[in-house]
């Protein structure tokens, strides 16, 4: 078999300093007639660093060797950009200083055992390579050369890397795309959220060079879904996770507005709603969830929304400006939408069955502090009641009637009363689904069917943090990690998931960060001042801390996440 290999090195990967510590790139694995063949880039010599224009490089003395103790980090200026200088175990490392996700200053993060964790949203980066090791976000950090001369620390870096502060890992390409039957693919990914995209990218990063097809009911390429409720007037191109060119460059095909209606696991065929059929070798199901609808009279009326797409969010903002808004459900989505619209709408009313927002998740005391913040921003709460009817006038929403008898004026209604897994199409498939509709997977994101994996909001999986209890964790960070683990195990790596859940919510310019899994917590230990919204809350079960939440207390949540990730137990007495 004659094998032709073309190695395409992305711009950001072309410098020596951005390779792995031993100067070797990862092996690429190409399939030839179904047989995996391994090639190392160093077997095909490339001239030493031919890509960088010397004018693009900068070198600067940044400190004395004794200026940093072991375990310390410092943001240093190279004149045309900054880097993060780290000293650990007597060695210096230099990487990008901003988290590629949302730009958090990593110097304020947590350094532990060869990696730095973002203080805002918990992403982790290897300090030796810059590679991303936990999520959210897709890109790694640029890594810079460090040298010691006459007890001074020098950093050498490309100006481009200093300016972009992020690096896309090297990926393989599909080597024979033109030879494929349109109705056949090696890997089919149903769903184009974080889990699906990370799965596709990980496959390419690991050298997988066969066909990958993603399909989605959405009309857009993968986008940053949490922004739909946090930044509601964002347009699709502003929140795209990757530009269109990225998918073309790495031969990741995305079929938009395509819904899978059934999966035949015996024949390995996915049947689409329009009748189109596609064969697959490996399958990832990452369909996420579907918002629950109201069950009352008038629920189909115009101007009643579930926030599912950028168009939904944009339309709500437009209709709500200077009008009366009613939000049903004090969920994360409901509360974030209320916060976003509070300054724009004439009035914002929030209807909730519980007595306090977030009571089951953050506990009553934190919930009341958040509720107070909302009330001081003109949001009116109607608690311990439900909607009984939506009334119209000339075909449009006019009033929301509550079971308590209260009638609220409403030009727009946003429904955020929870979600159900989007797995209805799998009912007759033979894939194991639990009583709530979640796909059951093991630690390698495998279902009960060989070659079929599942990831994201639609699954229950064993959480190491809670003694491998099967849980559903519908968070953005976790979906990323699920996608990565699924991809590695499609390639038979045998990698098990072992990550600490991490989430955040943003309201009125303030963020609550959270790490762990506190389902069924029996006590909350609070340090700081709830009234001042500067606090940390430790959630305990029996004698053990199982989760932590904070506001204006960075980087405590990232610190606790690192302790839990190391497998260490935090006792209640340690935080009291």
Automatic annotation (TrEMBL):
GO cellular component: mitochondrion
Subcellular location: Mitochondrion
GO biological process terms on file: execution phase of apoptosis
GO molecular function, one term: oxidoreductase activity, acting on NAD(P)H
Keyword terms: 2Fe-2S, Apoptosis, Electron transport, FAD, Flavoprotein, Iron, Iron-sulfur, Metal-binding, Mitochondrion, Oxidoreductase, Transport
Every Rieske domain range: 60-155
SUPFAM superfamilies: FAD/NAD(P)-binding domain, FAD/NAD-linked reductases, dimerisation (C-terminal) domain, ISP domain
Principal location class: mitochondrion
Pfam family, one: Rieske
Family: Belongs to the FAD-dependent oxidoreductase family.
PANTHER family linked: APOPTOSIS-INDUCING FACTOR 1, APOPTOSIS-INDUCING FACTOR 3
Protein purpose: Induces apoptosis through a caspase dependent pathway. Reduces mitochondrial membrane potential.
Protein name listed in UniProt: Apoptosis-inducing factor 3
């Amino acid at each position: 078999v004659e094998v032709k290999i073309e190695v395409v090195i992305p711009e950001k990967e072309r410098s020596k300093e951005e390779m792995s510590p031993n100067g070797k790139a990862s092996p690429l694995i190409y399939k030839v007639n179904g047989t995996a063949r391994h090639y190392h880039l160093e077997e095909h010599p490339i001239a030493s660093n031919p890509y960088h224009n010397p004018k693009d490089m900068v070198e600067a003395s940044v400190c004395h060797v004794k200026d940093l103790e072991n375990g310390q980090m410092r943001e240093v200026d190279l004149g045309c950009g900054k880097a993060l200088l780290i000293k650990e175990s007597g060695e210096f490392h230099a990487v990008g200083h901003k988290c590629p996700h949302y730009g958090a200053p990593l110097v304020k993060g947590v350094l532990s055992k060869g990696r730095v964790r973002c203080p805002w949203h918990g992403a982790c980066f290897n300090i030796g390579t810059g590679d991303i090791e936990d999520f959210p976000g897709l890109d790694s950090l640029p890594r810079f050369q460090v040298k010691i001369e006459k007890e001074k620390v020098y950093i050498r870096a490309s100006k481009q890397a200093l300016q972009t502060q992020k690096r896309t890992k090297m990926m393989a390409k599909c080597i024979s795309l033109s030879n494929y039957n349109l109705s056949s693919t090696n890997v089919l990914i149903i769903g184009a959220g974080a889990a699906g995209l990370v799965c596709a990218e990980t496959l390419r990063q690991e050298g997988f060079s066969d066909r990958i097809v993603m399909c989605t009911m959405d009309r857009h390429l993968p986008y940053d879904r949490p922004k739909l409720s946090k930044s509601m007037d964002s347009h699709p191109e502003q929140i795209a996770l990757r530009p269109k060119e990225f998918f073309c460059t790495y031969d990741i095909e995305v079929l938009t507005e395509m819904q899978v209606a059934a999966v035949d696991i015996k024949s390995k065929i996915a049947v689409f709603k329009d009748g189109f059929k596609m064969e697959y070798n490996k399958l990832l199901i990452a369909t996420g969830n579907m918002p629950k609808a109201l069950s009352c009279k008038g629920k189909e009326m115009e101007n009643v929304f579930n926030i599912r797409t950028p168009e939904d969010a944009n339309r709500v903002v437009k209709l709500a400006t200077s009008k009366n808004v009613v939000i049903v459900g004090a969920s994360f989505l409901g509360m974030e939408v209320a916060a976003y619209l509070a300054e724009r709408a004439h009035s914002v009313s929030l209807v909730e069955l519980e007595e306090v927002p977030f009571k089951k998740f953050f506990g009553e005391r934190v919930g009341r502090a958040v509720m107070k913040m909302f009330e001081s921003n003109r949001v009116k709460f109607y608690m311990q009641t439900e909607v009984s009817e939506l009334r119209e006038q000339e075909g449009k929403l006019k009033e929301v009637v509550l079971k308590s008898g209260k009638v609220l004026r409403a030009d727009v209604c946003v429904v955020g009363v929870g979600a159900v897994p989007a797995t209805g199409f799998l009912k007759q498939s033979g894939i194991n689904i639990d009583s709530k509709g979640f796909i059951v997977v093991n630690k390698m994101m495998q279902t009960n069917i060989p070659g079929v994996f599942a990831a994201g909001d639609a699954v229950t999986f064993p959480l190491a943090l809670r003694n491998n209890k099967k849980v559903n964790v519908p968070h953005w960070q976790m979906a990323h990690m699920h996608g990565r683990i699924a991809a590695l195990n499609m390639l038979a790596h045998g990698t098990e998931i072992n990550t600490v859940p991490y989430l955040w919510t943003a309201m009125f310019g303030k963020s609550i960060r959270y790490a762990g899994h506190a389902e069924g917590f029996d006590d909350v230990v609070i340090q700081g001042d709830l009234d001042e919204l500067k606090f940390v809350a430790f959630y305990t079960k029996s004698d053990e801390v199982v989760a932590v939440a904070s506001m204006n207390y960075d980087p405590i949540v990232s610190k606790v996440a690192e302790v839990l990730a190391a497998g260490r137990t935090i006792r209640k007495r340690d935080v009291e």
